[in-house]
Amino acid sequence: MRQGKYPFIVGFLAAPVLLYVVFVVSPYVQAFYISLTDWKGISANPRFIGLENFTRLFDDEVFWAAVRHHGVLLLVMPLATLVIALFFSFLLNLGGGQHGGRMAGIWGSKVYRVIFFLPQVLAVAIVGVLFQAIYRPDETGVLNSLLGKVGIDPVGWLIDPDIALLSIIGVMVWQAVGFYVVLFSAGMSSIPPDVFEAAALDGAGRFTLFFRITIPLLWDTMQVAWVYLGIAAFDAFALVQVLSVDRGGPDNSTTVLPMEIWRTAFNFSKFGYASAMGVALFFLTITFAALTLRVTRRERIEF
Locate the ABC transmembrane type-1 domain: which residues (predicted)? Predict the structure, then answer.
């Protein structure tokens, strides 16, 4: 039986590995090669130009604007999502205090879980169209209509370069919170109830339960969540495509690298230069994930 173990494992892994190589690794290799050419998307034999496309990136103001926007996204979007999701999941699982000797969530927590998760089942395009109506810059917009009732003039949520990116980040947070509420709720449910009950019996309040017990025991889950949210921040293509003015505007104030890759390739037929942007995005994402896992690494708490 032992002698046939490795052929058995190889037999099961061969098909998935082959599919991964064909549909994941192969496109990456092709993108790396195309980034070294001046391919226009038509010719069968593009001209090899080496690192010229990458050299051009250093002088491309729009490229660096997109990189700066990703920096804002990486700072604001994951942090806001994690804080809100942790707060809600704590309320849904432990916020009600002790009932019958056991820790419980607030009243109606099961219903709230469904409500919080609802944005996850909506397609990104639907979310974008929904918030187009909410962010409409005149009195017919939902937000401006509410502001008008208290005497505040309409705000150009998506047409003001100073707040357009933050407005889109708000939509990203709204859509992502529900998933991480469920994720953190699952993490909290895996923690032995005795830990929370013993702390409550010793007089620990909700503040102590949250910061001194819940967060340390959920650290590994939070670490993974931060990486996922960072990768989502490096994407952001769909919402920027639907919500922003002129696809990345106004004045490139909301553009992101996936948007510039799409625009460069399909509007200007510069597939080689677009691939160079894609390679840069690939290494930015990998670097972020590696640094995050390294910086947030800590001793695992056993329970």
Answer: 75-292
Which whole number is the average pLDDT over 242-260?
A: 87
| pLDDT 10s digits, 8-55 | 777 778 888 889 888 888 988 999 999 999 888 787 788 888 889 999
> How many folded domains does the chain comprise?
1
Here the CATH number for the domain that contains residue 169 is: 1.10.3720.10
- Nearest-10 Cα torsion for 221, 227, 230, 231: -120
- How far is 76 from 177, CA to CA, in rounded Å? 13
Angle at 129 between CA 127 and CA 131, to 5 degrees: 70
In which residue are the tokens 């590994």 written?
220
User: Which domain covers residue 273, as residue numbers?
Assistant: 54-295
Distance set, CA 229 to CA 19, 93, 123, 181, 300 (Å) = 27, 23, 18, 13, 22
